[in-house]
């Protein structure tokens, strides 16, 4: 899935969670100075910027299929090697990176298993592959849980996003094992976002970013109002903070 929304709208909707999530994934992957690293599905550059701060922009590569996201990423990590392209066909040579990471992307790869294999291919033996995706199967991503619960009050047949790759505990780890990665570990990372109020929560859904926003746009005006009202009833007044759990896995590339 390629995102068509402007980078600023993605940032208001989902990118704001990257501020607290990106350091956690980089820590899980053991990213430290002296390494060369790659961000697969970089979006507007939230994780790329964190990686550049750790290893220097000249040691960072990044890729995203959306040209507006790649352009925003170049602005946020000047000096990084940012390209347009897909996870399933990475444009770098074998064994080029010490660590290859992907944040909140595996669910939107056309072929997630092939994407993981490509991440492993461009990583040196002994290097680390790491990925994370929101917990949508057990409702750990609060923002999306509130939204889809509200949608189902209006449209009980709505499917939601829980069947997407990586959204269930252990799914990413299993894909890593199938790709031949060793020493696979898995767990959860918890990000958070502070909202100034309900409008700060609701407005980004109206931008039609990702499956949730696109589903909202496909509904009738009456249905959209019903979803908004149900979300409003589920959230506190005034300022509030929402947690978001992401499942993650790391694995090491073998020499074979």
UniProtKB/TrEMBL annotation:
Keywords: Methyltransferase, Transferase. GO terms for molecular function: methyltransferase activity. GO terms for biological process: methylation. Transmembrane segments: none annotated. The keyword Transport does not apply. CDD domains: AdoMet_MTases. Residues 39-130 form the Methyltransferase type domain. InterPro entries: Methyltransf_11, SAM-dependent_MTases_sf. PANTHER family: 2-METHOXY-6-POLYPRENYL-1,4-BENZOQUINOL METHYLASE, MITOCHONDRIAL, METHYLTRANSFERASE. This is Class I SAM-dependent methyltransferase.
């Amino acid at each position: 899935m390629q995102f068509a929304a402007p980078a600023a709208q993605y940032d208001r909707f989902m990118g704001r969670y990257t501020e607290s999530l990106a350091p956690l994934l980089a820590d899980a992957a053991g990213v430290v100075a002296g390494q060369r690293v790659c961000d697969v599905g970089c979006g507007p550059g939230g994780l790329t910027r964190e990686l550049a701060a750790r290893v220097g922009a000249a040691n960072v590569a990044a890729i995203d299929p959306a040209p507006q996201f790649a352009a925003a990423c170049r602005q946020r990590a000047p000096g990084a090697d940012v390209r347009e392209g897909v996870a399933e066909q990475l444009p770098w040579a074998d064994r080029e990176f010490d660590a290859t990471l992907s944040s909140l992307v595996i669910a939107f790869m056309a072929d997630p298993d092939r994407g993981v294999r490509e991440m492993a291919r461009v990583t040196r033996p002994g290097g680390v592959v790491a990925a994370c995706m929101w917990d949508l199967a057990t409702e750990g991503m609060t923002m999306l849980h509130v939204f889809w619960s509200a949608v189902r009050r209006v449209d009980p047949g709505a499917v939601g996003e829980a069947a997407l790759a990586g959204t269930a505990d252990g799914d990413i780890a299993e894909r890593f094992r199938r790709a031949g990665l060793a020493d696979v570990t898995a767990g959860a990372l918890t990000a958070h976002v502070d909202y100034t109020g309900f409008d700060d929560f609701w407005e980004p859904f109206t931008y039609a970013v990702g499956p949730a926003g696109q589903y909202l746009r496909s509904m009738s005006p009456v249905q959209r109002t019903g979803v908004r009202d149900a979300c409003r009833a589920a959230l506190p007044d005034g300022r509030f903070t929402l947690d978001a759990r992401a499942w993650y896995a790391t694995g090491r590339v073998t020499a074979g």
